Amino acid sequence: MDLGLFTMPLHPPGANFTESLKADLDQIVKLDELGYSEAWIGEHFTSEWENIPSPELLIAQAIPLTKQIRLGTGVSCMPNHDPFVLAHRIAQLDHMSEGRLNWGVGTGSFPGDMRVFGYWGDNPAVDSRVYTRAALDTILQLWTDPKPGVYESEGFSFTIPEPEDDVGLRAHVRPYQLPHPPIGVAGVSPRSSTLKMAASRGWIPMSINLIPPVLLKTHWDAIEEGAREAGREPDCGAWRVAREVLVAESGAEARKLAREGILARDFKDYFFKLLPKVGMLGLLKNDPDMSDAEVTIDYLIDNVFIVGSVDEVAQQINDLRGEIGEFGTLLAMGHEWEPYGAWYESMALLKNEVLPKVS
C-alpha cells in the first residue's frame, strides 16, 4: 500500500493567504522527502477555509522543489472551466512536471463556486454532470486528434481553426504522458456513480474522507460494477481511500491531539457547519437512524478517523482493509501542521513505522 496526501487545504477564515500557501507548499516538500507517493490539491474560489483557487499554480511551484512525489489537482471542477483552456493548461503542466502529474476531475464544487458558475440549485443554468462528461470527452479528443471545427455542448462552445502551416497555426499541445496523465475521479455518495464511471474508463477512483467504512464499502461495489460492465477487471490497486489520520507515540496522546487540536477545530468550525447546510451531514453516520447531535468529534475518532499509536493505527488500517477490501493508496487528509512537530511526526510515523506493520 502506498501513502499520499489529499489537501483541500484547510485554513480558518482570516488566515494570512501568503503564509498559508507557503505552509501548504512546505507540507508537500516534506512529504516528498518522507517518500509519500502523491499529493492532491483542492480547487475552490469562494471558500475561505479551502482557499486555493488554482492548484495548478501550487503544483507548478512544487515541481522544482520535489523529486519523486506525483502532484495532482484534487480536483479540477469541470463546470468551473472552459474545456479548451483547461486542456492546454493541464497539458502544459504535465510537461513542466515531466510526467509527475495526476489530473483529478469532478462534477461539483463549493456551494459558492457553484453559484458563481451557474450550476447550483434545483434549476441550474448548467447541468454539472452533463457538462463534466462533455468537457472530459472534448479534452480527451483535443489531446488525441484536435480536428478543426466547432466543439459545443451545454455550457461551452469554441471553434478550432483550420491549420495554417506557413505561420504554424494549429491546435498542437499534447500532454507529456500519452495519451494523457492518469485521471482521478472523487466519489462522495454511497454507491457513487462517479466512481462507477471512473472504473468503467480505467481511471483512478478516489473515496472521500468523511464516510464511515459501512458506506465506504459501497464505493468498492460501485467500482467493481463499473469495471465489470465495461469488460475490465476491477483494480483495487488503483483505488485511493482518503482518511483523517493522526499518529502519536501513545494512543492517549493521539486522541488528545485529535480531540483538542486542529483536527477538532476544522470539523467543529467548518464541516459541522457546512455539511448540514448542503444536506450532507448524513455521510458521517454509520447508522442512518443516528441523530445529528450524535455526530461528535469523539464519535468520529471512534468510527471514521484513524487515530492512535503506531500499533493502534496499523491495526485500524488492517481492520479497514478487512472491512472494505484491499485498496492501493491511503490518502492522509491535509490540515495545518500546528503544532508543527506533532503533525510532522504523525506523517513520519505513518510512513516509517505504521506502513511496515500493515499486512
Topology:
Layout: E1 2-7, H1 17-34, E2 38-41, H2 55-62, E3 70-77, H3 83-97, E4 101-106, H4 111-117, H5 128-144, E5 149-153, E6 156-160, E7 183-187, H6 193-200, E8 204-207, H7 213-229, E9 240-243, E10 245-247, H8 251-260, H9 262-277, H10 297-303, E11 306-308, H11 310-324, E12 329-333, H12 340-354
Parallel strand pairs: 1-2, 1-12, 2-3, 3-4, 4-7, 7-8, 8-9, 9-12, 10-11
Antiparallel strand pairs: 5-6
Helix pairs in contact: 3-5, 6-7, 8-9, 11-12
Describe the structure.
It contains twelve helices and twelve strands. It has helices spanning 17-34, 55-62, 83-97, 111-117, 128-144, 193-200, 213-229, 251-260, 262-277, 297-303, 310-324, 340-354, and strands spanning 2-7, 38-41, 70-77, 101-106, 149-153, 156-160, 183-187, 204-207, 240-243, 245-247, 306-308, 329-333. Strand 3 (70-77), helix 3 and strand 4 form a beta-alpha-beta unit. Helix 3 crosses helix 5 (128-144). The chain is globular. It starts with a strand and ends in a 5-residue tail after the last helix. The mean pLDDT is 96.
Q: Gist?
A:
The chain is an alpha/beta fold. The protein is built from twelve helices and twelve strands. β8, α7 and β9 form a beta-alpha-beta unit.
Features:
359 residues, alpha/beta, two-stranded antiparallel ribbon
Q: Work out the number of β strands.
A: 12
> What is the element string, with H for helices and E for strands?
EHEHEHEHHEEEHEHEEHHHEHEH
Derived structural class:
alpha/beta
Radius of gyration: 20 Å
Q: Which strand order do you get reading across the main beta sheet? A: 1-2-3-4-7-8-9-12
Number of helices: 12
Q: Residue ranges: pLDDT <50 for 5 or more in a row?
A: none
Task: Please indicate the percent range of residues in DSSP E strands (runs of 2 or more).
Answer: 15-25%
Measured as a percent range, the helix fraction is 40-55%
